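Researcher: Structure for this, please.
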Amino acid sequence: MTTLGDVLAALEAAYPPATAESWDAVGLVCGDRAEPVSRVLFCVDPLESTVDEALEVGAQLLVAHHPLMLRGVTGVPADDPKGGLVHRLIRSGVALYTAHTNADTADPGVSDALAQAIGLRVTGPLVPHLDPGASTGIGRIGELDRPEPLHEFTRRVADALPVTAWGVRSAGDPDRPVQRVAVCGGAGDSYLSDASRAGVDAYVTADLRHHPAGEHLAAGGPALVDVAHWASEWPWCGQAADVVRAALGGTVEVLVSTRRTDPWTVGVTSRTGGSSK
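Model: Predicted structure, token format:
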């Protein structure tokens, strides 16, 4: 019999909780480590939609990248949206586990999964850990087999990731050759200067803001490719599922959520082009 504890041991070997940021909330949210587990669902966001999915597929464990309760709480009443999810999970016998910044910095981790989806050969971290010789860190630097113009590379990224209303947009000369690329799953505009120092041709991340992006480009930084936050981290679900599959020899069925939990639901561009001054 495979237990919840067995599954969590595999996940924590790959994504050690001790490597999470001090502000983060990772680990087991609810569940009994002694209970049997035969099916696990992996998702980015622990929301009503993915909890619904876990119940529909008969999973005993939902593994999420984003924490359900990142900030401290004093209670989980059932009439609170997050408390209600905890009650549903417990009543249904479904455990919830989170691997967040510990999965971001792992090797391989979230950014490795993003790089692999795009077709990059990873050569190292974007921001290495301070430990001498550490292979882990935030983000990844990788290379394409051959250069391609930014407009084609942007299409490559869009084709590699799940569809979102946000889509994929890029900033820079559309014909700029791209071969050496930095990636960071999730919000990455705090690493714009690191991408510039790395000397890459393009930087792929999520949640880029107007002013930092503009200032980065004005300073001669690499081209930017901005994707939806959820889409940038979704490839990790398959990676984490493979961790459990490999560790437990097929005794546990692993599934990747098919629910789009990106909060944006409509994307519209002007039919007239408009004008701005």
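Researcher: Any notable elements?
Model: The chain has a mean pLDDT of 95. The chain has two domains: 4-102+233-256, 107-227.
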